[in-house]
Design brief:
By secondary structure, the protein is of the alpha+beta class. It has helices at 13-23, 26-29, 35-48, 75-95, 100-117, 140-144, and strands at 3-7, 52-58, 61-69, 125-131. The protein has six helices and four strands; from the N terminus they run βαααββααβα. The longest helix has 21 residues, at 75-95.
């Protein structure tokens, strides 16, 4: 068995998206027509905020991902991100009140508000650590996590 770590490539995206859908069991709580778009929004949002994205492969197949950021966001950038999320939430309330996507946006807004209220500066954050279930137990998460500090 060959295990490799490398930077994410666009060709990894679909397999990682499938892992997101499976791991968070999107098919059990998201309407069928929204499974892919919601998972894609979630994944692309996390990856867009990440400046270091590493995948682990097993015998050439994408088996996991670790994404994080060491970006030094200013307070005004954090404030603007919170405003952007709140605006999207307001739009969704008009278009699709009480939709699952609106609830997801509300969760994002709450996370951002809690970070703002902490009045602390963080040097970075872990945005996503995910290992395909069929590769669990191989220590892949332990290999991925330290890659954020490199």
């Amino acid at each position: 068995m060959e295990i490799d770590l490398r930077l994410m490539q666009a060709s990894d995206y679909d397999e990682i998206l499938k892992m997101v859908i499976t791991t968070w069991d999107y098919r059990s709580w998201v309407p069928k027509d929204l499974v892919w778009p919601m998972a894609e929004y979630f994944l692309s949002d996390l990856l867009q905020k990440s400046d270091h994205i590493v995948v682990v492969t097993v015998d050439g197949k994408t088996a996991g991902i670790c994404a994080g950021d060491v970006l030094d966001y200013t307070k005004i950038q954090r404030f603007c991100l919170r405003k952007k999320t709140a605006a999207l939430g307001a739009i969704l309330k008009q278009i699709e009140p009480d939709s699952i996507f609106e609830k997801y946006i509300q969760t994002m807004a709450l996370d951002q508000e809690l970070l703002l209220q902490s009045n602390r500066e963080f040097e970075g954050g872990l945005n996503l650590l995910l290992v395909n279930g069929k590769y669990r137990g191989l220590g892949l998460g332990k290999k991925l996590y330290p890659e954020l500090s490199n």
